[in-house]
Amino acid sequence: MTAVAIFWDYENCRPAGNTSGYELVNKVRRAVQSFGNVSLFKAYLDVPLESSNPRSTIFHSELQSSGVTLAYCPHNGKKDVADKMILVDMLAYAIDRPAPATIVLISGDRDFAYGISILRLRGYDVVAIVPPQVHSSITAQATSVLNW
Question: Domain containing 123 — which CATH number?
Answer without folding.
Answer: 3.40.50.1010
